[in-house]
Each structure stands twice: as structure tokens, then as C-alpha cells.
Amino acid sequence: MTKLTESAAWQALQQHYAEIKDVHMKDLFAQDEQRFDRFSLPLNDILFDYSKNRINDQTLQLLIQLAQQCGVEQWRDRMFAGEVINHTEQRAVQHSALRYQGDEPQFADGQRIDIEINKELQRVKSLAQRIRNREWRGHSNQPITDVVNIGIGGSHLGPLMVTEALHPYTIHDLKIHYVSNIDENHINNTLEDLNPDTTLFIIASKSFTTQEALVNAATARQWLLERLQSEADLPKHLVAVTSNIKAAVEFGVAEENIFKMWDWVGGRYSLWSAIGLSIVISIGPSQFDALLQGAYEVDEHFKQAPLTENIPVIMALLGIWYNNFFGAESIVILPYDQNMHRFPAYLQQADMESNGKSCDRDGNPVDYSTGPVLFGEIGISGQHAFYQLLHQGSKLVPADMLAPISNYRCIATHHRALMSNIFAQTEALMIGKNEAEVIAELEQQGLDEAAIEQLLPYKLFPGNRPTNSFLFYTLDPKTLGSLIALYEHKIFVQGIIWNLNSFDQWGVELGKKLASHILDEINQGEAVSNHDASTNGLINYYLNLKPKKF
Ligand code: F6P
Prior knowledge:
By secondary structure, this protein is an alpha/beta fold.
């Protein structure tokens, strides 16, 4: 296969970049009254507007050629067919089977999986319903009032993000807490206000080997044991979600309280599985079905829409355009919906753990830039924090802005102001402000010529900063499911084009291994000398000053 950067499609894009890089979007809009209509796509309740990008018809055509040349459609079909496309772990990638709503059997590596998926989903729903109906009782026969999900990474961020995003749909007399950090503050702060009689813990860990999850789970178990009447009461307060049933049983979780997941679901793609148990408890089985339905509809769109109208494909290609041709190093995710405040953090893992790689699928180092640094914040908060850099900084940071047309209560004074801000920001980033405009503005303020000349350079906005806008009717479970799936497939397409395996995460191994070795050294308490001078120095400084009670 031709190297990506030497391929015909890449070379054509390189040449096209030289032609278009200085073209201003303002001019593209001025030349084409239909630009918004031509470069925006509806999908159910979502409108995807990508007209404020530094593209023309030819750009899109060349980017689509790149996708075709890289076999995006063929890889997509292989993923949905359950082939082992995660080759370094010998696993299929079938998170989309978890939300499949059709009648066809689903497979992972040749094994039928839909029957088992459905069985586990029913178990999850049944537990959730019993808790919601106050039928699941703790050891003192009281209903559950608090659920604590213990897990990290994909066993934390997805469920947390979704329960926060769907706040209006959550049951109010039941609180869901999330504990991820091994720092004792996280679990202690959470336990402080909880009553063991009415608390249920979910230990969520696909591998059931993750240190953070297991240390927190052990603390939770101990907390329960010290407060319950006997160990036999534990099953009323402890359940687990894992693909490592044996380890969960050894830890002390009753087998009937273990919910299964599978190795063909990546942790960061697992909120659709039993890892979403806390979501189902929180929003209820039928709303969880709506979340799955929204994602399923995007799966179908991704499978069936021509590439030119395929939203995740276009999202991916625009990302590649800036990342690989304009040299943009980062992207920013800006939801204009307070309930989506964990959405950027969730996407950080989804994107950066998937495509933050520099070894290609064939084991060769890449000679092109891959996954961007992804950051984000609630848009309104970002405006008063880091938008300065987006508008006038020396870096190009393509932005995704997301907003609901209508929110839960929809108080006009709040919502109209909110919407005016998102529209204004995408417009300002695109049009900027030129010399003539700044001068006119300052003259109107009554400044004299000298003062204007002095202030002028600081007041210029280059504009031409790209944004994608996602407007959706309201952030209901179905729409949220769709939005998440759009990003999942975007990440998939980019991974294919960069020739990466987006579904392993070897880069997290080294730190884990070293931490385990250093933990042994700390436990021994002797001064160390086998690391580099800085690491030795830090460990020894800690050992000298460590809290007295150790
Ligand atoms: O260390 C990274 C990671 O493996 C993620 O990929 C995963 O989501 C997280 O840890 C948690 O893993 P587990 O669910 O196995 O505890």
C-alpha cells in the first residue's frame, strides 16, 4: 500500500491546501448564497452546520477521495460485521451491537452475540427497575436512596457524562454518585453523607484489575462491613459489572449480582453495556432504550448514507483537513448546555485514548500528525476564560459548538441569551474584524487619530477560524445517544485514515507498571536509588516527609 502521505489523494489535498489556505470564509460566504444550505445536514432532531469551515466543493471532493482511498467504507463494514479489527488485542469491535434495534443476528469474531446482549440488558433493566420501584431493599429492609458507581476511565466517564446530561430525566429521590479517583478524598467525601442501610455500590471495571477501581471498591466494602450486621448482608449493597467474573467473585460480589460485559466492547465505548447500569437506574429502562435508539439511528446513517452526506465521515474529514494540512494541534468541544458539562471530558478519553498513537496498524512509526489534543468546557464559561486564544491567539483551534433549540424549562430570558452567544461566537470567529472596521468603531467612540493608531493592532481579529455547529431540538436521551455515536464514528473514521488501531491503548501500560513497582518501594520505606535522579529525589523526599501515621 502506498504510504498515506505519498498517496494520490493526500498529494492532491496538499496542493489544494496551498491554493485555499489564504482564502477567507467571509469571501466564500459572499460568493455563495447557498453555502449554509449546501454545507449543512439534518439528522432527525440534529442539524449539523459545517459551512463555517475553510472548504469549498473541491476540498470536500478531495477529502472524500481520501476516505475512499483509505477504505473507510470497507473498514466500517468489517467493524459492523464483527471482524477482529482490533488486531493487537485480537478483538472484534462491537459496541454498536449493544444498541442494535433491528432483527438481524449480530456477531463478534464469528460468535453470535445478540442473544446474550439482550439477556444482560434485561437483567440490568430488571435490577434498575427494582431499585427505582423501591423493591430492592438493603439489609435493614429500607429502599435504596443512593447508588455509588466505582470505576474509572470508560467505566466512569460515560455513565457520569450521561447522567449529568440527562439530569431532567433522572429520578429525583435516588442519588447517583461517581467515585473514580484513588485519592481517598473522592470516596471519603462521597461516603460522608451516605447511609449504609440505603446505599448500593456498583463496582464497574471491565478488567477488574484496575488499581483505582479495586482500591476504592475495597474501601467501600470495608465501610459496609463495619456498618452492616454481617457479611451475609453484603449482596444487598454490592453489585459489579465486569468481563472478569472470576475476579469479581473472589472480591466478594455474589455471582447473581454480577453483570457481564465482553472483550469486544472497549472501555471507552462501553456506556451502552451493563457499564451503563447507573444510567439505567437514574433515567429508567425506557429512556435508556431511547438513548440506544438514538445511537442505533446514527449507526444506520453511518452505514447507509453516501460519504458526501455522512455526518461522522464529514466531521472526521474536516478534523483531518485542519490537523494534517493546516497543522492544527488541538480541537475544542464547546457545549452550550450546562448539563453537558462532562461531555468534553468524556470525548477526551474517547478521542485521545483511541487516536493518540504514533505507531500505525502495520507497526510502523507514522510520518504525519494523528489524534489532536482535545479540550473543552461549557461554551459560556469558555467565553470568559480561553476564547481570547480562540479569537486572537497564534494557534488555529477548530471548534465544535453544540446547543439545544429548547431546554427543559426554557425560560426565555436565559435561553435566548444563551443562543445569542453561540451564534455570535461562531460568527465572530468566522468574520473577525478588519482594520477599517476597527478604525470606524474607534472613531465612533471619539478617539483621535493617534490613539486609534496605537490601539488598532490589538483590536484586530483575523477571523477565518472554523466551527462546526450542532443544533438539536432538545437534549433528550435519544438525541444524546445520537450525538455520542456521531463522535464515536468520527473517531473511527479518523483512525482508519491515519491507519491506526483506534481500539487498543498500550500507552497507558507503562505508567501503571511503574506505579506498581514504586508502590512496592514506598511500602518498603527504604531510600531508593534505582531510578533517574529526579524520580529518586522525589520518592526519597516523600519518604522523608511522609505523613507520620504511615
Ligand atoms: O487505563 C486505561 C483503561 O484501561 C481505559 O481504557 C479503561 O476505560 C479504564 O482503564 C478502566 O478500565 P476497567 O474498566 O478495566 O477498570
